[in-house]
Amino acid sequence: MSVRVGVLGATGAVGQRLIQLLDPHPEFEIAALTASESSAGKTYREAAKWRVDAPIPTDVAEIEVGATKPEAVPDDVDLIFSSLPSSVGQQVEPEFCEAGYVVSSNSSNGRMDEDVPLTIPEVNADHVDLIEVQRDERGWDGALLKNPNCSTITMVPALEALDRAFDLTDVRVSTLQAVSGAGYSGVSSMEIIDNAIPHIGGEEQKMETESRKLLGSFDGAEVQLHDMDVAASCNRIPTLDGHLENVWADTAEDVSAEDAAEAMEAVTGVDLHSSPDQLIKVFEEPDRPQPRLDRNTEGGMGVAVGGFRETTDGVQFNCLAHNTMRGAAGASILNGELLNKRGYL
Ligand SMILES: NC(=O)C1=CN([C@@H]2O[C@H](COP(=O)(O)OP(=O)(O)OC[C@H]3O[C@@H](n4cnc5c(N)ncnc54)[C@H](OP(=O)(O)O)[C@@H]3O)[C@@H](O)[C@H]2O)C=CC1
Ligand SMILES: N[C@@H](CC(=O)OP(=O)(O)O)C(=O)O
Question: Active site annotated at which positions (predicted)?
Fold first, then answer.
């Protein structure tokens, strides 16, 4: 039997990706859509300025959009996906959890809260059980699970492979991020065409902290952050989708370029519908991965890496992932599948 799901922020850039991925999903059935007061009461077709490069699903198009509050969502909805602005998520996500809903959220609010699990199922699925601690502390029947920031998701699977084999000590990363990461009206064409912007508010700190939580260890009570040092520099460039990152990773154990590529190539997906068979695709060509050519690796749920070089204390490499698929909507859905499999719904 399929799980009835609701989507908060369903009309936005990430919300539309969620609809695209949920409509044909074998485990989930879309039962409720919400957005701001200005969209509430309209059909989804009227409320959403549909911008996905595939037709709007006809059955979803006729659903009436509700206000973003628990009373507007039917009680028989088992799982909520949230892609709200973080200032709105901060306020309403706890209200949904308190009302008994389990929420898989893409928004940045609360990601570093001590009792909120932050997961990439292929990397740290065990952290999901932090929900038990959360429920004890907050008295919720529902639960809140987060996926990380899109730039963080892009590098962490590769870092995890290196850490497991060679012990990471320091990570330095510089990003080239697509405009879709800022939302449809986030960066004006006059700002970004023929340009690069060396500032994305709050992004560097997210990469530096969320990566240490994801690679941290969970002992059943709390997550100890990984003790590696991470420093990031984030840049917006005029690509549409796909964040490309240049990473320098220092390790305690000796590592060659070949060893690093082999460790990453060996990473498989997990037994969840949206997890690819091979999580990390290694390119031999020195000029790959590239956003336009490689962002749809494994249907947008894979990570592409290449450009390996040995450095004095470790390796340098490049990595790329689709920021609204693996980096946002796909990540939330994968977390929803994890919640379902672990019996949290
Ligand atoms: N774009 C991306 O690649 C990524 C985005 N994110 C994060 O995901 C979240 C959504 O991003 P994105 O889809 O780009 O944002 P959009 O601005 O495109 O969409 C925001 C959504 O939230 C709704 N909304 C806005 N204000 C309110 C409110 N006061 N009450 C209820 N609903 C409201 C909007 O409804 P309405 O249409 O009615 O205004 C819309 O559905 C953000 O937290 C963002 O940081 C994370 C990773 C990647
Ligand atoms: N800041 C990211 C997208 C984003 O919204 O991230 P977060 O989920 O951490 O708010 C970008 O601009 O590409």
Answer: 150 (acyl-thioester intermediate), 243 (proton acceptor)
